[in-house]
Amino acid sequence: MKYRFELMIFGAILMLAASASGAFAQLDRDFVGPVSGESIDLAPSILENNKMTPGSGGFSFEERTVMGNSVSADDFESRSPLGALLRSFIVPGWGHWYVDSDNWRMGQYHLAADVALLAAWLGINRQSYVVEKNMFTHASAYSGVDIREHGREFELAVGEHRSWDAYMDHHERTRNWDRLENFPDSPEYRWHWESDEQRREYRDMRSRRDNLNQQLPAITAIMVVNRVISGIGAYNRGRAYTPDNASVYVVPGPENRGFETRLRFSF
């Protein structure tokens, strides 16, 4: 069980590393904005046959090929880079699918990594729960107390000392007077292990639970990184479906009288 979770996490990290190189490689890529009434090509290294022609309100796209796929002008309005970014933050890979549902292989890697990480997180969390439950049962059966309601400090004390009397004696000899008031002399605090071997078993189970719990924040952090990388990649692909992120161009004025300058942002 342990090695299976480790393999899942390792595989997810490899997929993240592969996808991150592609996402950051295109992070600074930009498109050329329209500046005249002639048809122009945008980002020829990524886009093919991307033509802009003069329209009644400025310039309009007729058709272009993005990542090998021919897309009509009507499709561009629905492929917002910001929309792709936000979708990838919610579910890695969703933004890639939103941009191009026929070609979202990189998004599939992000989605597979997220599924693997989520499965590992749930598996480790479940395993921690089982170990903790066994630890509580073991302590109740062999030490005579229920440790669930007394906090972590009590858990540690029960594992470090064979009995409540041994705990009090130790802190009296070491003059840790403040520790003497932590656990009052009452039945729910007076533990006594039947043997040191049973106490060591309890400590081993507590250590296993703590080690499992320490893995959960790391997996959560990797899941967040996966979403960030997926969002960057989806945003960059979404830009390929957007005429410009920001452009300034000149168009004929009302009733073809004079000219006016327009500033356009795409979100």
Write the layout of secondary structure elements.
Elements: H1 2-25, E1 47-48, E2 52-55, E3 58-61, E4 63-66, E5 69-72, H2 73-76, H3 81-90, H4 94-99, H5 105-143, H6 151-160, H7 164-173, H8 196-239, E6 246-252, E7 259-265
Antiparallel strand pairs: 1-4, 2-3, 4-5, 6-7
Helix pairs in contact: 1-5, 1-8, 3-8, 5-8, 6-8
Q: Summarize the helix and strand pattern as letters.
A: HEEEEEHHHHHHHEE
- Oligomer, anyone? single chain
Q: Count of helices?
A: 8
Distance between the termini: 46 Å
The secondary structure category is: mainly alpha
The percent range for helix content is 55-70%
Strand order of the largest sheet: 1-4-5
Beta-strand proportion:
5-15%
Q: How many E-type strands?
A: 7
Mean pLDDT: 75
Overall 3D form:
elongated
Uncertain regions spanning at least 5 consecutive residues: 21-63
The biggest beta sheet, please? 3 strands, antiparallel
What radius of gyration results from the CA coordinates? 31 Å
